[in-house]
Amino acid sequence: MKKLALVLLLLLSGCSGTAKIDPKPYTGPTDTIAQDLVLWPMSTSMDMIMVGDAIVHSSVYADAKLANGTYDFTDMIARYKPIIEPYDLAFYNQETILGGSALGVSNYPRFNSPQEFGDAMLDAGFNLVSLANNHSNDTGTKALLSSNAYWKTKNAIVAGTYSTREESEAVKVYTQNGISFGFLAYTYGLNGLNLSSENAFMVDLIDLDKMKVDVEALRPLVDVLIVSVHFGSEYQNTPNTYQKNVVNKLAEWGVDIVIGNHAHAIQPIQWVGKTLVYYALGNFISGQIGTERLIGLTSAIKITKVIYGAETWIELSDLSADLTYNYYDSRMRNILIYPWDEVTTQLLPDKAAWESKYLKIVNALGANLSFGGLRK
Predict the structure, then answer these.
(1) Which residue, of 5, 299, 311, 341, has the greatest Cβ tally within 10 A?
(2) 107, exposed or middle or buried, with CB in 10 Å at 0-12, 13-18, 19+?
């Protein structure tokens, strides 16, 4: 299991600047004269991979149910584990809340999912999870509290839902491979199932004023800032004006990576200045019907921290992307998530046409990518 370190926890009211790294130059042998001193740049890197929405429909949990009443989703994701596991950070959006079977599992439109699904995703190597989406409050605060308690026992970084006001106001900084990073998550709404005023802190909503405060509290403390946003028009392959407005603000405030979700469809990848934006990665796993809902996008990026003298900067490089295919049979059973290079024309007769379609969508805003290159 990849080790992730939480190195700083502050309340927003007590934020302060972070100490600067002061690397010592290599000066060579002791008899080297001053004008020949050599300053070597130092660097460290981590790599990150991202998939989209995980929606545990009734067909998904029925397929995973065992004779003893528990659930095992491991086989559904097993083919994707070799791709995910080698990465330092692996993101997905937990679309349906993991309140657990003790509260009763349920389907659309009011989801509650078995916590064993989270176990399977963690086993596959995922460790960065957005919990803020329009289904976060589907089954009330009991499910929210149960989900949060579950995630606190796991070696994963989550954001977007909270059990206490103090947790919601905390500023958290993590480190991986010597790179510090922050992670925030927000949703456009809760399907009208709004929390009471005293519990409103439990789910982070898209509120530009609040988001600016959150970003400005984290930005000076981290090398990399990652924000997940649940927004956009469902089943559309083009980002709408609202998405673009939110993204432009996040880029203006210095966010490094924006990961969009909610559309259940693939949308473009775009560089907005120095900010890498995924408007929507589509579905990773679901019981939705229609090939467009069963093909998702996976993308990876290398994050490098360079220190040269008194200067430190971050480079995002080696951007890559590929598709996934969510297979199920005519009974909506035997669910398997296939890497695109393992999808045959027996599974998907029009594979080449779908690949061409989604390559155009991904590149519609200038990403200039080809598919492949995710496997390590």
Answers:
(1) 299
(2) middle
How far is residue 211 from each of residues 10, 91, 134, 218, measured CA to CA in Å? 17, 20, 17, 11
> Minimal CA–CA distance to 1: which of 155, 159, 120, 174?
155
The whole-number pLDDT of residue 37 equals: 54
User: Helix (H, G, I), strand (E, B), or coil: what is residue 212?
Assistant: helix
Residues 6+ apart with CB under 8 A from 287: 55, 57, 58, 59, 60, 328, 332, 335
Average pLDDT over residues 160-179: 98
pLDDT at 10 over 60: no
Sequence-distant (≥ 6) Cβ neighbours of residue 263 within 8 angstroms: 232, 233, 234, 235, 236, 237, 279, 280, 282
Report residue 272 CA to chain centroid gap. 18
The encoded tokens of residue 147 equal: 């989900």
pLDDT for the residue 24: 40
pLDDT, one tens digit per residue, over 251-273 is 999 999 999 999 999 999 999 99
Cβ atoms within 10 A of the Cβ of 348, count? 19
